[in-house]
Each structure stands twice: as C-alpha cells, then as structure tokens.
C-alpha cells in the first residue's frame, strides 16, 4: 500500500476512476503513513482519521453510482491550520486558539468537501503564519523530511512537509509573503500562490488581509493546477475575490508539460539573483534558466529597482494589518482565557491583557507592537502611508517588466533549509528568507515554486519561482510544468525520489 | 466611581452674559435595512440575545465583511437630503480600540473618506431660520450591547458580572456630524433640539430608519464649548453622550452651558472629555477623558473594496428624495390653514408629523392641533417625555375626535379617554365602553336632571327667567355634576333655556 502514497494526485484520481483503488483504501494508506512518520516530521497538529474515512466512504459511494463530485473526488488532502474547518480544531499554530472549533467552513474548505476530497487533518504552521521556519508554532516545529534537523520552511512548513513526506498527496497552504513558495523550495515540492483574489479568503484567519492568498501545495505542477481549479474562483463572501472565470490552469500545466516554450518571453530579475543567494541555489537557478532557453524561451534580464525596498515595505504593511486582525483575540468569546494572578476581581481589560500575554508567542507580539506603532497617529504617514506608496512602485515595476516579458523568474528562497534554531534569535535573518517571494504579494501577482535540484554544498532542495501578471496564473503553470518536465527528464525521475527514507519507527500498535 | 455630586452651575442668563456657546452635534442613526451592514443577519429590535449573529458579526477568525448595498443606498439618500456632496469613491476604515462589546476590537467605519460631505440643513427656531452646516455623513457598524449585572448603578463599575448581546453588532449606522454651529447665543438649546427633531422628521420621511430615540435607533452626542462673549474664539469642548430624547438635547445643552460657565468664571479650564447625560437628574457627569492620547489607528479596511457610486445611481436616488423640510412645512401650513404662530407652535412641540398623520386619519387640522398641543403636550411634559413617545397614536387621536364629532363624548370625557389610552386600556372605543364614558343623550333623563337642577336652585332659575341668560352656567354645572360630566353641555343649555324662557 505504500506505493499508493508515492503517486501524484492526478495518478490517484485515475486509479480511482478506473476502479484500481478506492478512496477508503488510499485515505487509509495516507493515515497509516502519517502514523508511521509524523512523530518524526510533525507536519500535523490534528489528524481526523474518522472524518477522513467517512468522507472517503461517501466518495466511494459516489464513484460506485457513477456520480463523482470532481476529478479529485476521493483524493485526500491536508489543510493548513489557518483555514477554518467546521467541527475540526483550528489553532493557527497559536495557544490563544487552543481548542477552538470553528462553527463554519472556510470557502476553500467547503469547496474541498463539495469536491469530495477527504480532509486528513490540519497542518502545522508558524503562529498566525508569522515566520519562515515553522519554529514559531506554539505546538513545536515541523521537521524537514530531507533532514529532520532542518526547518521545512514557513509559515506553511506543515503542509509542505506533509506532501514531501508522502503523508498527503495534496495540501492547502496560504502565502502572505512566501509561506507557500518558500517551504516548497526547501522541501523539494511545488507550491503555487494564485493571483490575489483568485482564491477566496473567507475563513482564512487573516494575517495581512491585503497580502494573504490561499493556494495549492503538491508534488507536481499538474496536481497544483488540479487543486487550484477545485478551490479557485469567485466567492461572494469575499469582497476582494475576482469576479471573472479562473484562468485555465490545468490546460496550461498540460501544455507546459510538453516541454515546449517557443515564443515565451522570460525575464530574470536582476535584483533577485546574485549576492545574498547561496552558491548552490544560484547554480541550480542558472541551470534552470539554460533549460528554458533550450526549450525555446527567449530569456532577458529585467531590472525591478524598487524590489530592494519590498522587504521593508512588507514589514510595515503586514504588522499594521496583523495588529488590527489579532485584536479580536481577547478571551471574551472564544479561545484561551487566562485569569491574571494576584488580582482580586479582574476587569475585562485585566483578563484580555493576561490572556494575550500568555496566548501569543514572541514573534506575534513583536509584530503587533511594530504594527501598532506604524499605525499610530503622527507615525502613520511616515510608516504605513509611505509603505503603501512604495507598494505602488513595486506594482509599477512589475507592470513595466511585464510589458517586456511574459513571466519573471528568480530563485524562490536565497538558501536551502537551515538548521532548526539557527535563525530563531535573529528575526531579520529570518525575514530575509522571503526576500524573493514578497514582491509578488505586494503586487498581488501569481507565482509558483518548482524544485530546481539539490544544492551541491549541502545536498538539499532548491527552488525556482515563476511570476506572472495578475490573473495570468496559467502562465506560471505553463512555465513551471515545462521546467518540471525538463528537470525530471534530466534527473530521470522526480526530485523527491532522492529524499532519504523516513524510518517508520514510532508506529507502535498500528504496525 | 460616578461623581454624582452636584457641580456648580451658573444660571442660563448669567452664563450667556459672559460667554458665547458653540454647538456641534453628532447623530447616529440605525438604518432599518432588513440585514446588517456586513452580513445577512436580521436587524429586528428586541430579539432574544445573541440570536441574530453569525461568524461575520461575531468577528470569528477568518470571517469577512460584505457591504450591504441597501445601506449604501440609504447613506447616499441621507447625504442628498442633507444637501451633501456624494463621494464618487470612498473606502471603509478600521477604527481600532478594545471593548468587549466590539467583536473584532475594531469598528468598521469610515475615516477621511466619508460617503457624504459638505451639506447643510435649515432649521426653524422661533420663526428664525438657522443654517446648520453638515460636515459629513458616514457609514459604520453598530457595536453589541453590554449589560452590567449586580451593581447599583448598572454601570461596569461595581457590577458582579457583565453580559454582552451581539444582536446589535453590525447593524448599519450612519453618523451625521455637523460643523461647529456658532452664534446661536440663547437659542443654542432650541437650535440643538430643533436640529435633531427636524433631522428625525427628515429620516422618517426618507424611510431609512425607525428613528426611535428611546430604542436607540437615533442617538445624539452634544458637543459644546464656551468662549468669552464677543471674542469670536472657540473654547475647549465637551462631548455629552447618551442624550436620547429631544427634550434631553435641549436640557443637556442648557446644563453644559451653565456648568462650563461656572468653571470658566472661577478660572478653572474645561477638560476635553466625554460626559454622560443623566435623564433623571438632568446633569452631565465626567466620562473618560478624551485627549490626544486616544489613538484609533485608522487605516483603510483591506477586506472591503472601495464604494464608488456612479453618477447615474446617485441621480436615480436623488429622484427618490421626499419633499424638502421647508417646502413641506409651508405646504402643510397652507393646507391646514394654520397661522404662522400656530404652525411654529406645532413644529416646536415636535407635533407636525403627528398632526399630519392625525389629519390623514380623518380629523380636522384644528382639532388635531388642539389635542396634540394641549392635552398631549401637557401629559408629555408631566412625564418628561416627547409627545411622539407617549404611546397615543395619531389614529387614536383622530378616533377620539370622531367620537366627539359624533356627539358620543364631549371634550371633558375625551380627556378621560386619553387617560385610558395612556393606561393601556385599549382602543378609544374600548376605553369609552370600559369606563362608561358615553354622554347621556336620552332627552327624558336629561330633562329630568334639568328639572331637578331648577328645583334645587330656585334663585338662579328666577334670574334666568328675568332674562339673565348668563346665569344658566350654574345650572349647567349642576346638571353635569349630577350626570358625572356625561352630558353634552350645549344640549343641557338648550334644555334649560327652553324650560325657563
């Protein structure tokens, strides 16, 4: 049965359609895999075996009666713990939401359920999606399946690790400044951030509303596209969702998989290469560029001068929005409630203060303080206001670049996975991981990260990022799929085939 | 905590001798939309606590707002009726502060981009027209309602515990803010009251709100400052909240003028603060200090897209506006045949709409005015309430007058019918039946009563026989007394004169 967990979602969908397997069988296979390896990986915060199997049975009944709900009906999925799931705990990796069970489904989750995908469980993440290593989870870090002493990226390290460790064929992530793409890069998986507004944010517990976007975390570009079509499209519950048809991303992925990129104009962003990028990352990136040239693409260098200010801009806008979003966690209606010590009859404010003090981790507090400061009267213009102006400039840089090229290309993350704890005491070093991914969030454009190989110096995965203009998500799938095809051909198999076997050590009773 | 100790207050006349008041009024109007501002929850008043709630208005993690288009429409119509300019593009903003009755700990409001701005309304006060300039009208959501249980004051301090009802959270509000209103001098309290009254009538005519001050669907905050008389300066203002009746608006302005004048006269500067109005004692007390320390950290709401009403839509809405208040008043005065003074008194008593509805229900204008301005106004005054809030409806008043016209009761009995209506004894007809108030119109019974009165008062009868008809009053009184007032005085008089002349 192990073999089932190694297949792509597209292959599993075919196996289900042909009757080779059942949803119950493959859902159970993934639950078994989770039982085998998740004690070591810790990709999941909550596993819902019962719910997943019930959904799988319902899926099999639909298949049996010839009425599958979607292509992916019956293919199980893991969901980042930042998406509200009715009846399933949703903690956002934070103590302050420990035990909270939402009374409603995020639109994305509702669409997964409607399409018949059994939900295996909720994946680990940096608290409220603040971080690039999953070390800021209040429930302990996730470990990179390539090297358990290393970080799986963040904030969506749980989703990426679950897919990389074959615990799930598919996962949902969210990307505010790179939280889908950077974990994909360091775990050798695929992660796509759709155009802002392309996938509903209703039920996505907001980190920074103007930057957040939910998207697929998978092992292949085609799988990402299939999942994208399940969850994407207009949602009247999200006012910022785009009211027009989704780009044909599955068709684009299939087209790209032919490996032909004739006529495609590709720009390499000057500001997102070179200094600051690990040699092995840069080397694999340069090879990828050469492959694309060989595939018929026209590649030019493009400068986006304001991208060097993107990180600073992001760290004003994000904390500002986050400081306001997180104000609702006040112990009055749900979540953790802490009674302050040494106060006879504490007021509501006393309880709020004590609960927020205990419930939020250091990184969350750091950003709340930053954001509160940036929005304060007298500082607003200098910080938040100024950041919004630079944000406009970043968008203009994209617009100018996309006049010349169809897509932009850069390494996804500047380094391979670093060791757990290595950057925990240096917030700025941690923030620098998202240097290349942040501009896309500021401008709302789509991006995808695909594996580009293993860095020579440490043998760890590296990733390449493809960016396209807003609503042209199909382009990133086409170029991503082409690169994937060419690289897989060169490697003679998927990159993840080279990942070390995880010992099914701690399975215990279920073995 | 509440400082109920009486503050020194100068008399109104003394205060005005030394100081010029400047007014500013902020009115919050709850719209009567079917659903809330940003979700589909119902808005009805008086439902079981926390039954009109959903993830959005409870601010649950992940929930997102969607703007109620009907509320935007109402906001634009209010703006147009107040002669405002309508923004072609504006955004919502978050007003950040912590309070348990606010689910997200920020209020979704508008900040520097209100939907309507730069308008005016002309207000009539004692025959004079005062133009009140409107700064802005913006959209926002209401908060929940806290109930503090176990304390003596009903306030949070000293309470045993607090309960919060979020049914009100997210109900659409329009906040209408005036520019400073200078130069009203001794008319300041009346201008404030007339502005709110006229605004209420306007909102009613627009059909956008129930405007029930006692239910909180129209709430008024009074800003007031004093400057040395004739200085042309602006003093430090206070913002008095909880002013929830027309009468209170007038009283609160009057009180703050006296209070601030007393402080200033003894050299104590005014503290910029929020004050609470106490309906029962007629004073304001200090609330939280409102200084520059209060920082709401406004920023544009990133979960909502801008509101950009097209010119076509605004023009369409303009065509739906009711008759402007001044023109309406002139038309009604003409239709009713009221003198200027009668009309002014009617408007001043807050009874114009009531008279209009009473006339519509079939009463003659003069009769409608008589009941509302005498009987109803007196009772309202006794109760410290507004005529509109007494619980007697225009339909009731019209029916009472019809009973008088039909000769079934007289004016004296009509007053008792109103007593019955106020006591909740049912419809006018039910009160008449229940209290046995119908007049004695049986000629035989009346004639017998008249005969007894003549027999009991021979001296008076002789005077009448001698031609002193005016003396009949004494006999009428005796008959009425015997019949417990249940007779038509004219009919009695006719009988007396027929028997004695």
Topology:
The complex is a heterodimer of chains A (511) and B (501).
Chain A: H1 2-6, H2 9-18, H3 23-41, E1 44-47, H4 49-64, E2 77-80, H5 107-114, E3 119-123, H6 157-164, E4 170-174, H7 181-187, E5 190-193, E6 214-218, H8 221-231, H9 249-256, E7 265-269, H10 279-294, E8 298-302, H11 310-325, H12 348-359, H13 362-375, H14 381-404, E9 407-411, H15 427-431, H16 438-443, E10 447-454, E11 461-467, H17 473-491
Parallel strand pairs in A: 2-3, 2-4, 7-8, 7-9
Antiparallel strand pairs in A: 1-3, 4-6, 5-6, 5-10, 9-11, 10-11
Helix pairs in contact in A: 3-4, 8-9, 9-17, 11-13, 11-14
Chain B: H1 12-18, E1 19-30, H2 69-81, E2 85-86, E3 93-96, E4 106-109, E5 116-125, E6 128-141, E7 145-149, E8 161-165, E9 172-178, H3 188-206, E10 218-228, E11 238-243, H4 246-265, E12 273-278, E13 283-289, E14 299-300, H5 311-318, H6 325-336, H7 340-348, H8 352-360, H9 365-383, H10 394-405, H11 411-422, H12 428-435, H13 443-456, H14 458-465, H15 472-482, H16 489-500
Parallel strand pairs in B: 11-12
Antiparallel strand pairs in B: 1-9, 1-10, 2-5, 3-4, 3-14, 5-6, 6-9, 7-8, 10-11, 12-13
Characterization of this structure:
The complex is a heterodimer of chains A (511) and B (501). Helices cover 40% and strands 11% of the residues of chain A. Chain A has 17 helices and 11 strands. In chain A, helix 10 (279-294) links the parallel strand 7 (265-269) and strand 8 (298-302). The radius of gyration of chain A is 22 Å and the shape is globular. Chain B is α+β, with helices and mostly antiparallel strands and 501 residues long. Chain B is built from 16 helices and 14 strands. In chain B, strands 2-5-6-9-1-10-11-12-13 form a 9-stranded mixed sheet. In chain B, strands 4-3-14 form a 3-stranded antiparallel sheet, with no helix packed on it. A two-stranded antiparallel ribbon of chain B has the order 7-8. The model of chain B has no long low-confidence stretch (mean pLDDT 91). Chains A and B meet through helix 11 and helix 12 of A and loops of B.
